[in-house]
Every structure is written in C-alpha cells, then in structure tokens.
Design brief:
single chain, 435 residues, alpha/beta, Aminopeptidase, Aminopeptidase i, Domain 2, 2 domains, 9-stranded mixed sheet, 6-stranded antiparallel sheet, 11 helices, binds zinc ion
Length: 435
C-alpha cells in the first residue's frame, strides 16, 4: 500500500511540475487545483468578508500565491498554522531586444536568474514560456500565459578537439557561452520577428497585439521516477515546486473545522533574495493575516495576538548526501534520499529552528510516523538560506526550516526520493491537524 501511495503521490507532483515551466505557471496551476478544492479567489483591491470555514486564495503580481482555510476559533486565540515555500527556480530569462543574428544563427540573449548549475543547461532540449500583455492600439489589456513545448532552443557545448587547451574543461562565461541557438538565419530573418511570431501563435493572438512580454527558457524533459526499484524522482525544479505541491496536498487532506487558520504561503523570488512585492520580504503574508482579523471584526491588537499564536513550517529543498562528494557534508549529518523530511539547523540563523516550532514539528512527525533527518553544514563552508528566517524576523512567528532531501539542487535536473514526498505531505497535514 505504501509503495502504491508513494507512486501516485509522486506522479501527481511530477504532473504539477511539468505544468509549471515558470513561477507564474506554477501559480496558475496551483490556483486551478485550489479552485477544484472549492477555494475562491479574492483580490487585494476588494473588501473581504470572511467567516470561519471559508476557503480563499490571493495571487500577488502573478507569481506569489497565498491560500487559507479560515479557522473555527477567532484568529487571536486559534492562531495560524502556516506552510511557506517558493514558486520560483533558477534559470535563464530573455533580455530585452533578446533575439539577434550571429555567424548565421539566430540566437537569444539571456540573463541568468538565481544560481543555476550553469553547465547543466548545455545540450538540453529547451522550450520557452512566459507571459505577455496584449492590447489594442498600444492600450494594455489582458495578461496571457504561453508555453512553447517544443525544443526550439539549444545551448551548444564546444567539442574538445577545438578547445585551445584540449584537456581542460572550459570556464563558462555567462555572457558569451549561454545564448541559446534558435535556428539558422541572418539579419534579414530578424525582420520577420520569428520569436514574437511563435509566441503569438502559441497564445492565439496577432503579433501586433503583444505590448510586452517576459520570456523564460525551460528544460523540456518531463519528470520521471527511476533507479533499480523506482526509488528516485528525476525532474527539474524539485526545489521548490515539490514543497508547493506538498503544501497543497496538506491543505487538501487537513480537517476543515480546525480551530486555527491553515495557510499556505508560496512566495516568488526566493532565488534572488525575496525582495519583491510577491517575495517573502514583502508584506504579502502580513497583509493576508491582518485582513483575516479585520474581516472578522477584530481590533488591531488581535492581529498581533494572532501572529504570536501562530506556527510556520518553512519548507524548502534540503541537501541529501552525494556519494561522489560526501566530504562536502558534515560527517555526522548525512541526510539520505527516502529518509524523510530534513530539519535544517544553522547557528548563524541562515535557517530558523525555533524551539517550540521544532518541538511541534517533532510531535507531528511522531504522530504520523514520518522519519526525520537533520542537516547542518560543515563548519568551514557556508550554506544557503530560505524564506524561514525572513518571515520569522518580519512577523515574529515561531518557525522551523524543513525540506525534502535532494541531490544536485539547482541543476537543470534534480534528484529526489519517491517516498519523501509522501513523508512530507503526512508531516505537513499533521501540522494542519494537530491541536
Ligand atoms: Zn529553494
């Protein structure tokens, strides 16, 4: 039964990731799944009227989304149980005036977003996706998403035979070595606007209707399970769409009459420091929690009491031990794939492991028999950070950082454990259940 459950859960996660070539797509796909669960969209510019049991979601700037089920108790006594994660992932994004011709090729000028392992983008089948603003006579109207699900782009490597130093690996230069080739063509071919034409065709509009666009390159290879016993999952963007998916599944499986408000807060732009209006440094989550109090007619003090009564799990990918580089890990902390959720610890608070939140997480794990692991970095290397410390600092909410173990984080293809998604969903569901 376990195996069957883990497989169906992992394939639902793979489908979620495959449908999400950009953070905006991940947000829209999330919204569709929430709608199917009976959640209704609220807009920040409207007045909100919320009652216990109401299920709603809010999208900010296309790529950040917060969903909540209002608790049965008043917010100041019931508090909030929150799951935080992020919708974005490292990659390549098209520059303005991005299409050019060089040596008979049509190419795309790209910027690097976040910190991808760059060489993993070479020789991959790459598609394009993004959003466009359309309108008539230059007056902006709808925002539309598009996805070119064909290998229209490729970043070619250099054969060793013609390298200046034949035996040495090339040190990749971001400006020079990453423009994908889009086809063959000279300057004249550019006048045909080949890229905009393809985007317009995908979106079902005329080229002239496109007022602006943001375009990202993505890896086309769909996710899959693998390994001798199907114990692995191979996919792009496991960091951190796997956590977004786990948060949603927890919301789905949790009781609908809990005393506390259940919230999933999926922020954008974690990979570049979270400093945007839909990132974890913004007031997005504060605003939703405060309006929850206002809508149920509470005084301002209730907002502060609600924060003090809340608990946050900040869920983001963790580093499993890589057998080929095991010396990069702290020798007594070796998270394993399929070993269960990993609590992240850092003395310098790059990760948050607040005492009560950590104890609550342990109690949740014990209740659902989810194994737990711990990550701490070697003392002589730095470590990443995530939305936990930021949200906790900003709001004063007790928080703990946790995540599923993975290999090759920030590669164009990451590796996870099939069982871990199920373990994480059980843990998070208990966070939304436990009194
Ligand atoms: Zn992450």
């Amino acid at each position: 039964m376990e195996q069957q459950d883990a497989q169906s859960v992992i394939w639902d996660m793979i489908n979620y990731i495959d449908a999400s070539p950009t953070a905006t797509h991940a947000t829209v796909e999330m919204a569709q799944r929430l709608e199917a669960m009976g959640f209704k969209r609220l807009n920040e510019e409207d007045a909100w009227d919320l009652k216990p049991g109401d299920c709603f979601y809010v999208i900010r700037n296309y790529a950040g989304i917060i969903a909540a089920r209002v608790g049965a108790e008043p917010p100041e006594t019931g508090g909030c149980r929150i799951i935080g994660a992020h919708t974005d992932f490292p990659g390549l994004r098209l520059k303005p005036n991005g299409v050019y011709s060089k040596n008979g090729y049509l190419q795309l000028g790209v910027e690097v977003y976040g910190g991808p392992i760059l060489h993993t983008w070479l020789n991959r089948d790459l598609g394009l996706a993004g959003r466009i603003v359309v309108g008539e006579d230059g007056v902006p109207g709808d925002v539309m998403l598009f996805e070119i699900n064909r290998p229209v782009c490729h970043i070619p490597n250099l054969a060793p035979h013609i390298r200046v130093k034949r035996t040495e690996e090339i040190k990749l230069n971001r400006q020079d070595h990453f423009p994908p080739i889009l086809g063959l063509g000279d300057k004249q071919a550019l006048e045909e606007k080949p890229l905009l034409k393809a985007v317009a065709a995908e979106a079902g509009v005329d080229v002239d209707e496109i007022i602006s666009c943001s375009i990202e390159v993505f890896d086309l290879q769909p996710g899959t399970t693998g390994g001798m016993n199907e114990e692995f999952v191979f996919s792009r963007s496991l960091d951190n769409l796997s956590s977004c998916h786990a948060g949603l599944e927890a919301l789905k499986g949790a009781p609908t009459d809990a005393p506390f408000t259940q919230i999933i807060a999926l922020f954008d732009n974690e990979e570049i420091g979270s400093g945007t209006m839909q990132g974890a440094q913004s007031g997005f989550l504060d605003s939703v929690i405060e309006r929850l109090c206002i809508a149920t007619d509470r005084p301002r003090e209730a907002f502060h009491r609600t924060l003090a009564n809340s608990l946050l799990f900040s869920v983001d990918g963790a580093h499993a031990v890589n057998p080929n580089y095991s010396s990069s890990h702290e020798p007594r902390h070796h998270p394993m794939l399929n070993g269960g959720p990993v609590v992240k610890v850092n003395a310098n608070e790059r990760y948050t492991t607040q005492l009560e939140a950590h104890a609550h997480l342990k109690a949740c794990a014990a209740a659902v028999e989810a194994p737990l692991q711990t990550f701490v970095a070697r003392t002589d290397v730095g470590t990443g950070s995530t939305i936990g410390p930021m949200t906790s600092t900003r709001l004063g909410i007790r928080s703990v950082d946790v995540g599923s173990p993975m290999l090759s984080m920030h590669s164009s293809r990451e590796v996870g454990g099939v069982e871990d998604q199920l373990h994480m969903i059980r843990l998070l569901t208990e966070h939304f259940t436990r009194l």
